[in-house]
Amino acid sequence: MTITRPWQPHQVGSPLISASRMHWLILDVGVRRPNDLWNWPDWINFAPQDLQQLTQLLSHNEQVVWKGNKHIEKCFEQIAEYIQNSDAPESIQTRLQLYINELFLEVFEMLQTQNIKLNAKLSSTRRSVEMFLAGLNEHIDYPWTLETMAQHCNLGRSRFAHYCKQITNMTAAEHLNHCRTEKAKRLLIENQEMNILDIAMSCGFESSQYFATVFKKKTGLTPSQYRNLTFE
To answer: Which residues are 17's β-sheet partners?
Structure first.
């Protein structure tokens, strides 16, 4: 069985989970970042203390693959069979909710039997900022501002700035320009066919002039000088 949070890549596939029949259940509890509060649907019929413990087991541990049991397997099978035999899913909502509650109860009891080392830092605000900064290079061409970066982490500007400085020892603007400059350095070397303006745009700089100013401040060379020096 695999349990995957929104920020985790799934682990389905050999050698972790071999070829088999797959059943997927996607439940939206309003969580997009590790530090978001889990808001379970009202129809999850757990006692408050049990739901709190289940949330803690799932949010303070990020193991993806678990060895299930026959009870969990049966729950998935009955959910799949019930859906396949119905032409109108809305007409079987009550029964589905009952089966899903049973599934979560079995998962809850299975997790309770494991020797899980819980780590509260996995759901901390700092970790959400760390994950955002780690993935920033993949979206470096976006016109980021301090406000949009903070909003992406569901934080205020000052709180985000505090964590960014703590993690990178740079202000948010400095770190953003650092990431953009590092990508530009790679493109200047690896993509000789790209002109300076294209590189500036692909790295999120507003103009080639601003790109040249930031680049020279960081490296001591203009983009053209850096490219020419590298291939001399």
So the answer is: 13
Task: Tell me the C-alpha distance between 27 and 104, whole Å.
Answer: 11
pLDDT average, residue stretch 197-215 = 94
Q: Among the three residues 65, 98, 123, which one is the final residue of a domain in this structure?
A: 123
Domain extent at residue 110 = 1-123
Beta strand spans in 57-164 (E): none
Q: Say yes or no: 119 and 222 in one domain.
A: no
110 with 152, same domain? Answer: no
Tally DSSP H helices, then E strands, for the chain: 10, 0
Assign residue 152 the CATH number of its domain.
1.10.10.60
The mean pLDDT of 70-78, rounded to a whole number, is 93
pLDDT in tens, 136-154: 999 999 999 999 999 999 9
pLDDT digits (tens, 9 = 90+) for 3-24: 999 999 887 777 777 777 788 8
Total domains present in the chain: 2
For residue 230, the model assigns a pLDDT of 66
Closest CA to 83 of 47, 75, 192: 75
Query: Which residue type does 78 have?
Result: Q
To 10 degrees, the CA torsion angle through 64, 70, 75, 77?
100
What is the structure's pLDDT at 103? 97
